[in-house]
Amino acid sequence: MSQSLGGLGSLAVSAWSQEYWHRQSRDETVHLGFYSAWKGISWGVGYYYTRASGQQKNDRSWSFNINIPLGGPLSDSAVSYNTTSDSNGYTSQQMSLYGAVPTRPNLFYSVQQGYGNQGRGSNSSASLDYHGGFGNAQIGYRHDAASNQLTWGGAGSVVAHPHGVTFGQTVGESFAIVRAPGAAGVAVQNGNNVHTDWRGYAVVPSLTAYRKNVITLDTESMADDTDVDQQGQTVIPGGGAVVMANYQTHIGNRVLFTLRNAQGPLPFGASARLVEEEESGNPSGGMVADGGQVYLSGVPQEGTLAVSWIVNNQSQSCTLHFHLPDNPQQSLNTVKTVSGLCQTR
Predict the structure, then answer these.
(1) 3-state SS class at 41
(2) Where is the PapC-like C-terminal domain (predicted)?
(3) What are the structural domain ranges in the chain?
(4) Of the four listed, 25, 34, 124, 274, which is most buried by Cβ atoms within 10 Å?
């Protein structure tokens, strides 16, 4: 059990006993501990008493540990120290430095140095652990008086689907494939460090079966020339199912068109669409507002805009051929403006 002592910390007490009927003996363990924290620094002391059947001498041990978070460029790191002594005269000490690599929050490191008396000698270890959007990888090294060990490993998934192959983290029973063609490096808010690959595909490693799951793209992580029609998609997977979350992407310029014909600005409510995008099966369009203005994303440097509307039950249409001026100093995120005369078809 544990009892809070307010701002002082907490006191923990536990006891365990096991009795053997067939040999009339008993094993017992008692633990007493006090734990506290101050300004992010946590520490604790513990006492352990163990009486084991078949041993002539009961064992008592004491422990002390402290954990100190660091600041500055190592604000995601901490130093810890731990020491243990027992009634047999054995003492061990261990110092550790661990945390996330600065500027790389998905890369974790740990460095440890320890020492034990009674012939145990010193030991040291170091490890790196990478948690990426396309899987995890680990590498570690340990040295002590008896051996040297080098370990490494990795885990992830390779998912084949109708649009190709996508690498991802280790998947659960139900998971999803994000399809956002051309939207590379976009973070997916479902999961840790999940983002689209160079083609715009990602694996969301775990979903709740038979429930609504909203898969959301982080629009702040999109490139300046990338837009999506809808930020989130709702999917309801079955048990053990793989579902596809499709996003309509528009890769290109953001443009505000001001359109007119021989009679003046094009009418409010007219429908405008990019001919090239429509032919590629990735339509980009919008509705003309006041003053003949319409905003479109995913606009190529050169193309054709088709506009249609109805007047007195008669269909009207026109086209505008445009070429956006090249301006290397202008950000892709800048909304360009184009004014033009829409030619009647």
Answers:
(1) strand
(2) 256-325
(3) 1-69, 157-250, 252-344
(4) 274
Is 215:204 a contact under the CB 8 Å cutoff?
A: yes
Architecture in CATH for domain 157-250 = Sandwich (2.60)
pLDDT (tens digit, 9 = 90+) per residue, 95-126?
Answer: 999 999 888 888 999 999 999 887 677 899 99
What the block records as the tokens of 265 is 């600005």
DSSP per-residue letters across 68-101: EE--GGGTTEEEEEEEEEETTS-EEEEEEEEEEE
CA separation for the pair 292, 307 (Å, rounded)? 11
Give the whole-angstrom CA distance, residue 105 versus residue 126: 18
Helix or strand run (H / E) with residue 278: helix 275-279
Residue 81 pLDDT exceeds 70: yes
Residue 224 banded pLDDT, cuts 50, 70, 90: confident
C-alpha distance from residue 138 to each of 109, 124, 125, 266 (Å): 10, 17, 13, 61
Does residue 157 contact residue 205 with C-beta atoms inside 8 Å? yes
- Name residue 205's amino acid: P
Examine the pLDDT at 203 and tell me if it is beyond 60: yes
Q: What is the pLDDT of residue 41?
A: 92
CA distances from 68 to 79, 98, 204 (A): 5, 11, 35
The whole-angstrom separation of Cα 284 and Cα 271 is: 11
Q: What is the DSSP letter of 171?
A: P
Identify whether the C-beta of residue 226 lies closer than 8 Å to the C-beta of residue 186: yes
Q: Class assignment of domain 252-344?
A: mainly beta
